[in-house]
Amino acid sequence: MPVLNVALVGSEDLARRLGKKGDTRDIESYVHKESRDGEVRVLSLLRPLKFPESIRPLLSVLDVAKAGLLEIRELSASVGEAMVALGCSGISRGSAIISPDEGVWIDSDQVRVMLDQAGLGDWEVVEGEIDEHGIRDRLFEIQDQMAASMEKTNSSPLILPVDQHFNVKGVGLVAIGYVQSGKVSKHDEVEVMPASDVGVVRSLQVMDDDVDAAITGDRVGVALRNLREQSLHRGCMICIPGEGGLVSHEKSSFELGVAPFQRKVLSVGEVIHAASDLQFSVGRVSSLDGDSVTVDWESPFWIRTDGSSRVLIVQLDATPMRIMGTASGIETIG
Fold it and tell me: pLDDT at position 231, please?
């Protein structure tokens, strides 16, 4: 059952027109299932709550999403920040839906220019009456275009960040999160980082269905045995022992690709946050040399060993543009 995770930055009304409401945390999920060519296909629309007041839910959505929808009711600083966040996260496929508030006029040409500047040159601009069927058809087209790359990601090492966990009577310890890469199956031996505790997968659930395996893009509940509950916390990583998919950074160096529209410059001693694979890690800039930045992390920051991590650098007090840019060539020091 292929799933396409979609970042939906827009109104609850739009989300309800596109899918059936599911669970709500700091992110609302809306699901649309449809049978196409004899196969059940799924659109999982993820709507960050509290944005623009809080940017973390948006960044969590962008860590998971492979496509985007941006509803534009007025041209504002928060719309510009959302565009930059989408562009810096590599969400290269999507639609900007112009849906102005009453009495507001939005210039579609200006929207096009802003998208191009934000790195979203391949996004389409949609005007007029909202056609939910047309929007979903476009998302299924994107899913088709990404099928080969998603299949390749399934063969990568397992990376499964945990965003919540609890004990279920009759089941035991359950961890929930999105499979960022790789595959997890029933009876797999798994390792939880950074505790380095090992357990065994007892059972798996995806969208309330029991499954034998979960693949890239699935939001999965993993029932575990032989594992201490203390090893689980939000932001910990479930991996397969010996695959070596992640490396821990306590101090990193990287080149900062400055975000579009960003005028602020980092200074030594400033606090930053790094968003990657559902982590939101705190660090302090210890040195600068042009665009080369060195950061000491408050707690271990996990980076993919294959170099595929996409890391967004954020400063929470850098309003109206909190996205500082992307970290490339990130390496551990020491």
Answer: 93
Q: Tell me: the pLDDT tens digits for 170-190?
A: 888 999 999 999 999 999 999
Q: How far is CA 8 from the centre of its chain?
A: 12
Q: What is the CATH number of the domain that holds 234?
A: 2.40.30.10
Contacts of 185 (CB under 8 A, 6+ apart): 201, 204, 212, 213, 214
Distance from C-alpha of 327 to C-alpha of 57, rounded to nearest angstrom:
20
CATH at residue 143: 3.40.50.300
Would you state the pLDDT for residue 216?
94
How far is 137 from 13, CA to CA, in rounded Å?
Answer: 19
Please indicate, yes or no, whether the overall pTM of this predicted structure exceeds 0.85.
yes
| Closest by Cα among 167, 191, 323, 171 to 246 | 191
pLDDT score for 1: 77
Are both 60 and 149 inside the same structural domain? yes
Q: What are phi and psi of 166, to 5 degrees?
A: -170, 170
- pLDDT score at 168: 85
Same domain, 77 and 187: no
The whole-angstrom separation of Cα 285 and Cα 253 is: 10
What pLDDT was estimated at residue 324?
98
Same domain, 286 and 145: no
Are 279 and 257 within 8 A, CB to CB? no
Instruction: Report the alpha-carbon distance of residue 210 to residue 221 in Å, rounded.
Output: 9
Beta carbons within 8 Å of 225's beta carbon, 6+ residues apart? 172, 173, 199, 200, 202
Residues 34 and 50 in one domain: yes
pLDDT of residue 150: 85
Query: What confidence score (pLDDT) does residue 334 get?
Result: 78
Domain around 290: 246-332
CB 162 within 8 A of CB 237: yes
Please report the pLDDT score of residue 102 as a whole number: 87
Q: How far is CA 66 from CA 22, 59, 90, 198, 232, in A?
A: 19, 13, 8, 30, 27
Domain C-terminal end among 138, 153, 168: 153
Segments in the chain below pLDDT 50: none
